Amino acid sequence: MTADWLGAFMIGLLGSGHCMAMCGGIASLLSIGQERPSKVVPVFYNIGRIVSYALIGGIVGGAVASIASIGDFNSALVWLRIFTAIFMVMLACYIGKWWSGLLVVERLGQKLWRYVSPAGKSLLPLKHPLHAVPFGFIWGWLPCGLVYSALTWSAVSGSVANGAMIMLSFGLGTLPSMIMIGFGVGYLHNLQQSSTFRHIAALTILIYALYTLYGSVIVLSLNE
């Protein structure tokens, strides 16, 4: 496991309170038309969601790596990594409720989501628990600043595999919280909404962002 995979996992774990805030409505959608919703539906939903993260991470990581290798833009990857660190600073500020600038990025994603969401809704009501997998795959595209922050990391990963693994690690980090809320367990949600937890999570992400920024600036100065 690389440091980036571990960092992506920790961001997913610490920032998943933001995902949980959106998940209540999704949990309600999954139970539409179900007298007794299957207990495996939240599991299948999250499998689909994490697969969608890994897929887009691989696509973005591979595309940027290919452009960099063809055009010999390796220094551009360092600048992109600086951009990723700045994005993480924005994420830390959002989680700590110090500044909500990340919501502007989420609003930009709403334009694409208007075209994607009908495909997910067409699967409702779920006729079989396994149908929660494609539903989760589509819902993985829900505009989310936390996801976008992790995706900028995949962009500078250097390969398809690394980009996919970063987003897979991120998705696995969000899994405990999302599974618990899918089963109606609210303790972790209450913990993550506490100001103490939010500030600790925000400071942890901020420190990692500054570490990433420092390392990128050092590499940039050595290349000049």
Topology readout:
Layout: H1 3-30, H2 41-71, H3 74-95, H4 102-121, H5 132-139, H6 145-155, H7 160-182, H8 187-193, H9 195-223
Helix pairs in contact: 1-6, 1-7, 1-9, 2-5, 2-6, 2-7, 3-6, 3-9, 4-5, 6-7
Structure description:
This protein is mostly helical and 224 residues long. It has one domain. The chain is 80% helix and 0% strand. The protein contains nine helices and no strands. It has helices at 3-30, 41-71, 74-95, 102-121, 132-139, 145-155, 160-182, 187-193, 195-223. It is globular and about 65 Å long. The chain starts with a helix and ends with a helix. The mean pLDDT is 83.
Question: What keywords describe this structure?
Answer:
single chain; 224 residues; mainly alpha; 0% strand; globular
